[in-house]
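Hello,

Our lab assistant flagged a job as stuck in the queue for most of the afternoon. It eventually completed. Since we weren't sure the result was trustworthy after the delay, we are filing this so someone can double-check. Below is the sequence as submitted and the structure that was eventually returned. Let us know if re-running is recommended.
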Amino acid sequence: MILEMKVPSPGESITEVEIAQWLVAEGDYVEKDQPIAEVDSDKATLELPAEESGTITFKAEEGDAVAVGQVVCLIDTEGKPSGDAPVSAPAAPEATSAPVQKEVVQETTYASGSASPAAKKILSEKGIDASAVIGSGRGGRVTKEDAAQAVPSMGTKPADGERDNSRKKLSMLRRKVAQRLVAAKNETAMLTTFNEVNMSPIFALRNQYKEEFKEKHNVGLGFMSFFTRAVVRALQLYPDVNSMIDGDYQIKYDFCDISVAVSGPKGLMVPVVRNAENLSFRGVEDEIKRLAIRARDGKITVDEMTGGTFTISNGGVFGSMLSTPIINPPQSGILGMHNIIERPIAVNGNVEIHPMMYLALSYDHRIIDGKESVGFLVAIKEALEDPIALLMDNDVKKALDL
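-- returned structure --
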């Protein structure tokens, strides 16, 4: 029986996806529910699982845009795994070398020379043997991107070198991100205000309680729970920042859905921590960990990345000292965290060394005035510099559920 596998709908309003990568080779035997492809929509990268077991035949190439409901591959459910074929017992000792050699060749081919159809075409045009390319796909498989970046062996003299370039189509997700970033710059009156925060109180709390916290809750006590709770407090004090423009109207929210920018294998993703105002330190850390793992593994869904009311972006994990983050539309504000650097500051007339972080708030000036934006950022600074009083109600053990 030949089963037609069609592209399922990854979410409301999505009518088209792109074949990012085939995870199996043409003619492979696949098991039911085995991931066979990664598909990009304009909101997320999702895995496509096999609907039945059998041998697979492609009906779309990597990089092809396919409509939701379109057939992308066929699965012959009567196909059998190549390893199921019976092997007769050797008649003599010397005959044992044949099956061993066959097994070694198959393993080598899969690990270093197996290439997708699109990759084979590119390598053929370049005159490069697939076995000479190190693949980055599953099991060392050579992907279309590997082939595009592959170059022939270089010579020893400058004159022997070739001046070449590669051309790679942006994924649907990356194209959508690009469109949204340009739209945010062009369609909002974006302005950024800055401040700095002394992280010494947060450092002291984490050093004192992080081991006990991790042992009890099986999750680390990171900076994000402090920042998320500080943002929630500031949003409640300055509700204009927790609002959006809809034509001639302002929409205010009485809940705080905090988008957290994370780096995934396909680029920047922004999953949402729902109702952060109701979450404890442990609740925030648990949810951020869960969403980050799903983003890293490519399992994040469209629903988990839509509907945020404010965004936190931590460029500091990459070493950023200072930046102007871009608003995540249709939201009106985004907080940028940066690298923590020990710097000399004046404390009560004395010079002391403290771990300092610059904060940046980018906001839509059409709906948020300077007074609210500066007050919002100062409220975050105050909460982070006095977390026990302002974020923990003067009861650290209770706040951390210890």
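-- support follow-up --
The delay was a queue issue, not a problem with the job. The result is valid. The chain has ten helices and 17 strands. Residues 200-217 form the longest helix (18 residues).
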